[in-house]
Amino acid sequence: MDPLAAKRSRGCPAGPEERDAGAGAVRGRGRPEALLDLSAKRVAESWAFEQVEERFSRVPEPVQKRIVFWSFPRSEREICMYSSLGYQPPEGEHDARVPFTRGLHLLQSGAVDRVLQVGFHLSGNIREPGGPGEPERLYHVSISFDRCKITSVSCGCDNRDLFYCAHVVALSLYRIRHAHQVELRLPISETLSQMNRDQLQKFVQYLISAHHTEVLPTAQRLADEILLLGSEINLVHGAPDPTAGAGIEDANCWHLDEEQIQEQVKQLLSNGGYYGASQQLRSMFCKVREMLRMRDSNGARMLILMTEQFLQDPRLALWRQQGAGMTDKCRQLWDELGPEEEEEVMAAGSRHTVFGRALQAGSLHWSDDHLQRILASDSYSPNLTGNGGSDKPTFDPQGRPLWLGEPFPTTCARVDTLRAHGYPRQALRLASAIVNTLRLQQRHQLQIYKQQKKELLQKGSTCITNTEGWVGHPLDPIGCLCRALLEACRLEEETLAIYPDLGLEKRKVAYQHVPVPGSPGESYLAMALEVALLGLGQQRALPEGLYAQDKVVRSEEQLLALLEEVELDERLVQVLRKQAGQLLEGPAPTTPNHSILGGPFSGFGEVLFRESVPMHTCARYLFTALLPHDPDLAYRLALRAMRLPVLETAFPAGEPPSNPLDSIMSNRFPRWFILGHLETRQCELASAMLTAAKGDPKWLHAVLGSIQQNIHSPALLFKLAQDVCKTATPASAPPDTTLLGIALELGLQVMRMTLNTMTWRRREMVRWLVSCATEIGPQALMNIMQNWYSLFTPVEAATIVAVTGTTHATLLRLQLDAARREELWACARTLALQCAMKDPQNCALPALTLCEKNQAAFEAAYQIVLDAAAGGLGHAHLFTVARYMEHRGLPLRAYKLATLALAQLSIAFNQDSHPAVNDVLWACSLSHSLGRHELSAIVPLIIRSIHCAPMLSDILRRWTLSAPGLGPLGARRAAKPLGADRAPLCQLLDAAVAAYITTSHSRLTHISPRHYSDFIEFLGKARETFLLAPDGHLQFAQFLENLKQTYKGKKKLMLLVRERFG
């Protein structure tokens, strides 16, 4: 026999009962239920049918039928749980992903027919419409059940998923909703017992004939074994009946495909890096919790199966071998597994687990008398019992129970365990005792702190002895407490509570105050808020590692998301105000403590540990919540929370960081992986305060001071300044000048912080600062011009600040009169001249441009350029300024600057593509246009600076094409062009000829055959230059003869020379 197939051997009953008690008859509304049905219900829930048969020698058929009838599950909740995912799927995917909703649709569309219940076996057909152009599909479904649980399912769709398919759901819901329409038969063995030999033979032959292709070999094998007297089948009393229900020894649990769970977890782990796989594994963990909450034994079975697959993950051995850590995705999944294991171990008291915390949980027990009394009653008080000789207090001064003696996270894990295993009332009682203990401990901490406050403030620093904070802890103690307390106050529609996956859109959660028994005036909702604030405000060290730090952030955000769902009323506001006040006065850590009395040290206290987790996110929630009710408290709390201790100790006041735009600061703070995120949250808190303080100068300047002291990231400061400026200048209202002043101050600080660490965003920052100052007024604009040394580089001040501040658009925006406009211009010109003196190389030309309309300033700028030329201003910059002067109609000044540039220039014989070639040709053209005198003066400079023969010959030809002084700027005119053989060009000709001779010898020293043709062309150009002299032909011939004699070994080259030049 196969126990997994839910078959049970049954003997032949003494005789069937002929009477029918009318099973399946519909009872009238309002009539009391029959005693038979009441009894059958209880028996069907808790007794295996075999136990009924053994207990009573003869069970009447009507009683059997009622027991069989009531043995099918009666609640749709379990059907939903076993056929739906454990999380809310994305909108629009419910029908595609949740079998329960599909099965419900099939039922409502009339797709279920031919439903038959034979004993503890239900069967039926499901007709599912096909897709476009596809025929209708028919699925045969079989379900076995026992004691109101489905024990096995079979469907023609061959579903290979974790949970029931839509067809099983449709048939199950049909049986629950239309139970009296289902044809009911007793187990098949009961029917067979009523047949005689001929009927039995006919029955068997008809059965074989109907299914001969499937059962004929099995039928023949069974017949052979029955005819064999000593066979095993003849030694067993009775025969198996798959419709007779479970045996006494059979486990009573819902059907769970263990093999499929193992296979799917294994597959999902192998794809654990993908978002979809991680989500599915999380949904399975949620399903485990859901089963445990309903006290379903499959929750533990499923958790064991998943744990085994986690431990068999081949990557574990690989990571251990390589000494590498898990990926973050895998860490998150293992994090999900750890608390589940601990809860199960705590519930069962088992030690069989490999997880450290679960091992610790295995040593815990639930037999403590005080704990049992807390869990058992809402009215447990000192009047009912004494301390029993315990050295720990068991009640607070108000007579409310306390729970001490173990670490706070473990205590909270007890609450989560009770809640997860379906004991919500007991979970609430223990949670209340924990809150009472927290309050008592908080009072003690405040007393200790007040005694030691003076000493701590003088010391100015502290240390944290309990490094494992409550928010971000692997067991999530604060989250466990809050969820348990909030769950008791949550208002939910009954349908949504039963079918959590059916909500088509996220609903706003509503909560109500639920009184705490034995504590007049208290509510679980207020308790939840109080506990959350205690945990969030706890001073705690940032843990090691990226994943642990990221978990702290995520846990904090999840906890605050829970609080933001709660609508604050007067009672909750009072809790907020009280807790906020205590957080501000809160103690710093003083003594080591590893129990619950280790307590929450305030992260808002006056003295902080250097590596404490910042309070920015928590403070932003408190600030927003308190602002309408107690603005003074809200601002004091938020301003205190602006601190970022790890940066305060790293950078002394007034000393900027070495690389302030590096938010991560990995080179200086390798442990603070999430520093960039924390700085962003700090900036968001500051932004919220600035926005709220609009129109209130007192708080605006207080917030500004805090920002300037505590925010160390220029990029975030700049973003904050931009946001403030945007808030201060609404489109439909006049600007807020006070808020604009705050934005300008923030911008000025950014400029100072980034002055020595140039970034690609500096130009954007400078332009924004000028526009912000413009919004405020001309005085602000002139102030930044006058104090430019501490804010801008000379280039930024001259090219952006001075220029942008005097554009036509800026002047129109400021709406200045003539005197004020001239004052602004004078300030800009002074700025430009100062920049030109500081950095003439980059600022001289902008200064000249800006000073064009003021002769004195222009002359001063020109003189700065001349002085800089003597001090080493490069030829490229001098040529640029010279060209600018010619465009301005000042050719003599252009000529002067060009000669200064030529004096610094040197072009070698082989630099015919030198970058200054065009500038030199332009300077030569300029001197030629001015006249013979200027040309004569520049020739010696050309000869001294340029040694490139082709360039010299090019200049010479250009000067011989026309007479000097004939250009548009020439003041003197010559009668005819200058001759190359006469002064002043004869010197240039001699220099060009000498350059060709020198260059030829230089090239021939290392010439290769592939360059022969280039050299011949070079000689051709040289001959053209030689021929400009009266005896040039003779000089060139002598030059060639010299080459032939000197380089006669280069026979091929000399042959080419003779062929070309003779």
UniProtKB/TrEMBL annotation:
Location of the SWIM-type domain: 139-176
Residue segments, region Disordered: 1-29
Gene Ontology molecular function terms on file: zinc ion binding
GO cellular component: Cul2-RING ubiquitin ligase complex
UniProt xrefs under InterPro entries: Znf_SWIM (IPR007527), ZSWIM4-8_C (IPR048370)
UniProt KW keywords: Metal-binding, Zinc, Zinc-finger
Protein's name according to its UniProt entry: SWIM-type domain-containing protein
Native source organism of the sequence: Cervus elaphus hippelaphus
